[in-house]
Amino acid sequence: MFEIIQIPALSDNYIYIIIDKKTNITACVDPAVSKAVLVLLEKKKLKLNYIFNTHHHHDHVGGNLEIKKKTNCKILGPEKDYERIPGIDIPLKNNDEFDLGDINFKIFEVPGHTSGHICFYSENAKLLFCGDVLFSLGCGRVFEGTNEQMWSSLLKIRSLPDRTNVYCGHEYTKSNILFALSLDPENKKLLSKKNDVENLLQNGKSTVPFNLGIEKKLNPFLNSDNRSFQKMLGVSDYSSQKTFNYIRKKKDIF
């Protein structure tokens, strides 16, 4: 058994606290800030054992040093970004594994958004912490890597089981679904999803986590190799990579 607590931060970030209920071993994923995390730990009377960092951007590591100072936790992060992860203790590379109590995490390198980006995936807990690679109905901007790397990273995530619950770094679903509908305005499943998203947000609720199986059907970026989708976009002669590039460019200026 485990519990995940979601902490909103900054304008649209999500920080996560994972608690293995059997052992009470606890981790914090991508602490953008320290205060909200420390307040929650005090309120819940939790001892923080680890920080998991998916990538080096400040809105994912900004709380590292203060939290480590106050809790004496260990910080895990991408080996390829060792010099850019504040306070890192345990560098991680592709296919490494790490146990948080009874929750086994496998590490995937998923470059594109940043060159050293990693994901934390647990098959037994059906969890994926993916930072800024995949969002509900979208994907991360390509800052340091290449479009080829990002498409490859998304395919790696897409290969995971449909039952996977995805925890991403930001609440971007509203703008992402508007973009998805700009590509496919008559899609009834997208229109229904739009209503669901609007209802959640209007009631102060989060659209994250989201189900990967549903995402595979609705996320335009995950359908860059879907021939019917390519035909609908008018790019049926494009390769899957060229289609991804086309969609990413359109989203960048949306």
Strand order in space, largest sheet:
1-2-3-4-5-6
What is the CA-based Rg, rounded? 18 Å
Helix content: 25-40%
Principal-axes geometry comes out as globular
What kind of oligomer do you see? single chain
Largest sheet: 6 strands, mixed
SS field, number of helical segments: 9
| Poorly predicted ranges | none
Class by alpha and beta content: alpha/beta
The tally of beta strands, per DSSP, is: 14
Termini, distance in Å?
Answer: 41 Å
How much strand?
15-25%
Helix-strand pattern: EEEHEHHEEEEEEEEHEHHEHHH
Average pLDDT metric: 97
Features:
single chain; alpha/beta; six-stranded mixed sheet; about 250 residues; 9 helices; globular
What does the model show?
The chain has 254 residues and is an alpha/beta fold. 34% of the residues lie in helices and 24% in strands. It is built from 9 helices and 14 strands. The strands form 3 sheets. A 6-stranded mixed beta sheet has the order 1-2-3-4-5-6, with no helix packed on it. A 6-stranded mixed beta sheet has the order 7-8-9-10-13-14. The mean pLDDT is 97.
